[in-house]
Amino acid sequence: MPSITKLAGRIAKSPTIAMNDKAKQLAAEGHSVIGLAGGEPDFDTPAHIVEAGMKAIRDGETRYAAPSKGIGPLLEAIAAKMERDNNVSVDPMSDIIVTPGGKLALFLALKAMLDPGDEVLIPAPYWVSYPSIVTMVGGVPVTVATSSDDGYRLRLEDLRGFVTAKTKAIIINSPCNPTGHMLSSDEIEGIATLATEADLYVISDEIYEKLNFDGRPAVSLASLPDISDRVVVINGMSKAYAMTGWRLGWLAGPTALIGAAGKFNSQTATSAATFTQHAAVAALNGPQECVEMMRQSYQERRDFMVNSFNNIENMSCPDIEGAFYAFPKVDNTSKSSEEVASLILDKAVVVGVPGSAFGISKDAHIRFSFAEDLNLLTEAVERIRGIADQLA
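^ thats the sequence. predicted structure below, dont judge the formating
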């Protein structure tokens, strides 16, 4: 039998999806499992968005999208949203591609900008798919470690130390999955300086931009005039509008790069589903109170999770500025994050994702989603508290 590619052998299944699948399997076997591994809102998609999608189906909007990069009303809605929310001006017909999910948007951006062997700086902790997608398109992921002791700050002098002649881009995620860290003005200035000095693309993953807490605004790197021509924004509908299953994302950026990415899109996905695009138009152009309601709920849960973990013996959890994940660590332990996650699963029947999945090997961090009902989160925390003495 012919062999599979060596590349396939180097790509692992997404750790978050693997842990989420494990939770579902345990539940199917009758275990009282609490699954906090996924990154999925527990809210239903708002009714007016659902109705727009259903109406589009009833109206026969079930054919290929035209143009393939996205239907005109959605391209215009995205451009208007970026102008309104992010102070970023893009041409709706030349600077945006709508994709079936944010992962493909990231894939297309990287495919358009990287030649084989080009390097991409990825600050860690990072979203688990960044290194794999870089590898899949022929690039080389370069991890730039940050520390919870320093608030996960990105420092220009540290970033400079990882730049080589092969460095082509840096991926930024703010608010960050898994830490919740949001870029400060100093960090934003440092990234802009680095991009200009080293002639880099900046991929700005802004999928959690609307889920920010305590009045901290999420700043799009594309809004910086000095680097706007080298920033590619990745965004989508899944987190802010509770539309994970609708599979709708986009990338926006420099015209030439978006044009190149569009070629790969036309030969792979072709287009996102037409009726989901109509639903997205309703989401972006319609009432936004639903987004604020969800954000406030996440902030309440954030407060609970941070306070709870900091009151469990030998555990600590720094402040969470955005997104919907807690990333606590066991302060004094000889165990790895994988061992801690396995112990919590086996003894407390609570599913989290080990910090190693996010590029952290030094400390025993575990990521828990708090995009779940507060009663369920309370039960999960109490279960963990009950086995805390076994985590050392």
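The longest strand covers residues 167-173.
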